[in-house]
Structure to design on (353 residues):
């Protein structure tokens, strides 16, 4: 057992505890250390020489391990090197420890990654192996709340649960969106008929047009957990909130969503607080509704427990499974190959305290 007493290692441990499931920032640190250990041309005293390169190194690995790359803002990604995270002097200290101990810090980071993904895989097995009629939303959510390593990803969990339910019901109800032009007698309409055709989609007969309503996921929830999560092609914006909505965050959410019909999804205990805050800020008129976890659980129950909705229940759970496996891809085989290639030993890891 090896004991490391180092402020820089403590910084790394703090980063590992805060990181979300895809592990972008810790993997970036691991790859900086790996490149430094195997490439004598890397100068860790010069941050600008590896700031952007390290993102490329990270992306190359995350494409293999989690099937995607970070889409956070450059500012958020560069926060990794700030004093409250892992500034260059801390990376240099970790580099020295890493080189003296045959990649021990890299190995530790990937060990922690493996532990977190084993937790997510146990949760994913719930929806993979369970019969549809036995699915219970609250039981599923509890799998994430009970695992400390998964709580940081609960926002994505809620987002997927909401999306799967909403898109399934909107499609099954065959909701249509109709578009018409009321000001057809004006000169402006005559002069810009090509605009209405190319941009709006009106044909030369000027018939009203209709198309299926649907819900889209933006696909990225940024680090501050603010902004748009989903939107409907019928004028709806959806923001999923599982955490407390402070006044500062409320300003950011409302200001970042340029829509007049906003649906907020939150935990049940937050509904009154959110309503009160939105009233204080004079923004209630822009909120179409507030949906709680209890609402979601009841809607899931109605679909899954009613035998006449058996086909709909299968569609709903299939959507849920597809979204979860897309968001949290299984990494077992590719991860094992990666670890073997790097010659890390996670079965008998070097212990760090």
């Amino acid at each position: 057992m090896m004991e490391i007493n180092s402020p820089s290692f403590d910084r790394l441990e703090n980063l590992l505890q805060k990181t979300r499931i895809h592990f972008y920032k810790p993997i970036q640190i691991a790859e900086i250390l790996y490149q430094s250990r195997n490439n004598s041309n890397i100068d860790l005293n010069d941050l600008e020489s590896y700031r952007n390169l390290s993102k490329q190194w990270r992306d190359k690995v995350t494409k293999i391990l989690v099937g995607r790359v970070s889409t956070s803002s450059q500012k958020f990604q560069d926060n990794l090197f700030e004093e409250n995270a892992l500034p260059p002097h801390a990376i240099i200290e970790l580099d020295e420890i890493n080189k003296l101990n045959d990649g021990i810090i890299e190995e530790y980071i990937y060990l922690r990654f493996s532990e977190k993904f084993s937790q997510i895989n146990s949760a994913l097995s719930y929806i993979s192996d369970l019969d549809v009629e036995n699915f219970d939303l609250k039981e599923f959510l509890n799998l994430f709340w009970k695992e400390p390593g998964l709580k940081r990803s609960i926002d994505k969990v809620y987002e997927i649960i909401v999306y799967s339910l909403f898109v399934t019901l909107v499609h099954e109800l065959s909701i249509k969106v109709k578009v018409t032009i009321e000001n057809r007698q004006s000169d402006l309409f005559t002069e810009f008929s090509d605009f209405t055709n190319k941009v709006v989609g009106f044909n030369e007969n000027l018939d009203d047009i209709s198309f299926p309503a649907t819900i889209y996921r933006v696909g990225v929830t940024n680090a501050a957990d603010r902004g748009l999560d989903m939107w409907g092609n019928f004028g709806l914006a959806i923001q999923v909130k599982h955490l407390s909505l402070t006044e500062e965050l409320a300003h950011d959410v409302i200001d970042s969503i340029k829509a007049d019909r906003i649906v907020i999804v939150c935990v049940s205990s937050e509904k009154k607080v959110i309503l009160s805050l939105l009233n204080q800020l004079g923004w209630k008129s822009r909120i179409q509704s507030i949906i709680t976890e209890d609402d979601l659980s009841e809607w899931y129950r109605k679909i899954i427990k009613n035998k006449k909705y058996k086909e709909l229940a299968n569609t709903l759970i299939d959507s849920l499974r597809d979204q979860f496996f897309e968001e949290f891809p299984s990494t077992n085989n590719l991860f094992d190959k990666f670890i073997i290639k790097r010659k890390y030993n996670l079965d008998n890891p070097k212990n760090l305290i």
